[in-house]
Each structure stands twice: as structure tokens, then as C-alpha cells.
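Quick note —
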Amino acid sequence: MKKRIPSKSSNYASLIEENAYYVDKTAYIETLESISDKYIFFLRPRRFGKSLHLSMLEHYYGIQHKDKFDELFGQYFIGKPGNTTPLKSSYYILNFSFSGIKTQEPENIEKEFNSEVSSQIFKFLNTYSIGTEEDSRVFEGDLSSPDLMRKFFTLFKKIVPSGKVYILIDEYDHFTNELFAFNRVHFKDVVSRNGWVRKFYEVIKQYMGEGIVDRFFATGVTPVTLDSMTSGFNVAQNITLDYRFHAMAGFTEAELKGMIENTVYEKGKFDINAIVSDMRSWYNGSKFSKDANERLYNPQMVISFLAKFSDRFIYPDEMADINVTSDYKKIANILAPLSHDDSDNIISEVLNTDRITERLTIQYNFELPYTKTEAVSLLFYNGLLTIESAIVSMYNYVIPNYVMKQMYWEFFRYKFTMEKELRYDNTKIDRSIMQMFIEGKIEMLVEYVHTILKNLSNRDLQKFSEKNIKMIFMTLLMGNNAYFVKSENENNEGYADLLLIPTKLNPGKENFLLELKYLKKSSKVDLEVAKNKAVEQVSKYKTELASEGIVCRTFAIVFVGKSEYVVAEVF
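Predicted structure written out below.
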């Protein structure tokens, strides 16, 4: 019997009860119990399945779910004979989720944090029928989170002296990451030696020492907050980069195929391998450990696509989930503390080459300057860059997939238009793209780039080069789903500026190969030489691509300042 495509719900029991497909991650329970560390931090980008994993742990270990164990886990690895661990259904689960804490008013953050702690303690006491109404009243009033936790553990120890607590925390760093980006001074106050976040974790550590808190698992996105409170909570292990837990969140390709086969697949309706191949370009590519052997798919992107695709087995108009691409301002927040030059250098390098080489910051020290290394590392932790390879302490990072690439271009387009006080005409851009796939021509696209140049000031053009021209082309081409845009496509003859391959949403069939040149107005006399050089270069790229089976409409394009341009098609 086919299962339903899972909703975006992070409640494990609801998923199972609704006969929705669950990508089986229960084998990681066995792995987690096999290591010596019982107190764990696990970091992954947003929408990568962390919350669902915590819910799965809650249902496995929570004593309140004991009677439904077979129903919840019988069909999965951990529920099979010989796989179940001795710790199943043996803990009192205390849950916290800090994802909903608002940061717009810093003075209210602690109050919201205290409210979350208080409400979850009340929920715990109610779930396990612990204490009387009078006992519960102790947690009413304006208490700090450390005081709430002390009173909670005192009550629990009194009423359930032999009980063991498993603490699960979702998005432990959500609100502090926001503060880190916008209010660094308040961030330091919150997580410093005397800060209330640090004191909250110090209380938990105290009762770990007393044996009441037997296990702890917290998820988040970055290690910024974790590193700030390390000395106050040095009992926990960060397993984020450990290859053994690389695929604990996110889907492997085998898991993706399993989901498709057991949910939407109908024989003869579509080619599973062709679908997976396309999804690989859009959603795959994440690698969080240099020692991992495979790359991971973003779960929310995959589920969003399959939900739309399953209706009529045609590709949705939007391949990227708007909730993911709308995160492009995260790039701005990460780069904001850098100098203008450092910020521009990162974006230029990443967008022109799809890669960047830097160290990986494991611990953030706020006594030291925030540098390019810290910024690139945060792009990695947020899933905006991923590991390609590593040699000693130097990491080669790449953009993981095409959705993330579009996010960078959304950011650059926003930044470019704001700085230059420009407004793009989306109708003209769309018509230019349509001319390409209907007529195989690029006149409208080149003319629109020329229009943008004419609106730039002479000062803007002082440092202009081919790189800047290419960036403008890409801001136009990346705003739609018609072409896969490859910058600096490597071949034996060098690097082609732009290679455009139609996506499945594109009714056209032609590939395009563009070689771009830019001359300052004072060098107009060199126009013919520049054009011939561009034609010579792109002809070699065209020939090599053709030998690989990629036949392209090929153009050499030379701009002179903002006054004129020439286009030569290479046959």
C-alpha cells in the first residue's frame, strides 16, 4: 500500500498515524547510544528535519508512549527484533523549543524565554501527573528560567526520586542568532558569564551531575551561542561534523528514491531516474563532514516538490520553495559585520566561481575580530555553502545546489539594485528569456543589459570589468527557472563565461554559450580586436562542448562603456 507524501509537520506520531512516509532515521538511536557522550548538540540548517528527529526521539524514549511503541516503531529499524535498545520508553521527556521567540524587542526576549520554560514545565507536570495544584503554583509568577529549572528539578526529585529526565531542545540558538546579526552588544550580555542563557544551562549541568538529567539532545543552526557558553556547559559534545551522524538529518539519494517509489510513483507515468537526476541539480549537494561519502537532499525542498509534482506528474512552475529562497537576507546579515571590500570579495568569488577556500571556525571568540573566515563558516552552518573537500585545516566550499545558487543571486540582485538605485523591469526580462527559447536569439537580453549600464553613473563604471558584466547577466537569468546557468564552466581550453542549459520547465531545447568582454569608453579603438579575441575563445569552448554532446547557440558580446556594444554569433 502506498503511503502519503509527508506533510511539513514535525510531529512523529502524526506522521505515522496519517500513513505518511517516514524516511527511517531510527538506526541513529542505536548509534547515539553506542557513543560515550550522553549530552549532545547537533547543528544543521533550517528546514533540514531536525525537529522531526527530536520528535522521533521523544516518542521512542518517553514513558508516556510505551503502550503505542509497536504502532509507532514496529515497521522501522529500531522496532525490529534485536534492534530495540534497553533505554526505550524509560525517560521523562522535557521539551523546549526556542524557535518562536521574537527578537524585535530585545528587552522582552528574556521574558519570552522564561515563558517558554514555564509553559513546558507545566506541560511536563500535566503529562506525567506529577505534583498537586499547589506544587504547580510554585511555577507561576515572574520567575527567571534558572529559578524555574531549579524549582522544577527539586519537585521532580522529591516526587519521582528514581526517575530520569531526557531534555530535548529544538533551535536552541534561534533567538541568539538573530541577536548576533542585529544586536551584538545585547548578544554578549545574554550569553556572557552572568547572562541568563548561560545560567539556564548551568542549572541543567548541575542536575546532570546529580544524575537526574541522564540524557540531553539539542539542535540548532550555528555554534555561535554554543561556543559562548562552553565553559558553563562543557559537558556536552557537538557532533555536527562527525561523519557517523552526517545523514541523521537530510535525505540520501537512496532515501529519496525510496520515498518516491513508496508514495507518488506509478509505473509508466514517469521515469524515476530522470526525476531524481533533475532533483539532484535543484536540491542535492549538502555535505557537513569532510569524511562523509555522499551528499544530502534538503528534506523540505524535496517534499514541497513531490507534493506539487504528484498532482499531474508535471514540474511545478516554481522549483524552489519560497520559504527557502526568502532566506536570502541571511546572507546580508552574515556579511554585514565585515568591511565592504571583504563582503564584496566573498560574494564575487562565490558567484563567479561557485566556490571559495577558507578555514572552518569551530569556536567563535568575541574578543577577536569578526573576519572573512567567520563569515564563510556561518554561510556553511546555514547551508548556504557546503564542503567539497578539505586539506588539513583548509576547506574548499561550494554552493550546494541550484536553489541555493538562486538565493545568492537574489541577494546580489537586491544589493546591486539598492546600491545603484535601479529598478529591474521584470516584464522585459521575461520577454528576453522567451525570445531565447522561442527564437534562439539574445538581442533583447543584451539590449536590456545595455539599458542597465546606461543607468549607471560614470563613477560606478570606473572599476567595471567583464566580471561585472557577467554578474548583471546572471541577475537577469537567475530570476527564472528557464535555464541552469553555469558560470566559469571549465574545459580544456579555459573557462567559458556563461553556459545556459534549459531546465525541464523550458519549452525550448537550445543551449547557449556566451563570452563577454568589456572595454572602457577610452578603449573604443580596441573594439574589433576585443571582438575577434572573444570569438576565437568562445569558438574553442563551443567545439569542446560539442564533442561532449552539448551543442550551443554561441555568442561573443563586447560592451564599450555604456555607449555601445557588438554581438557576434559563432557558427
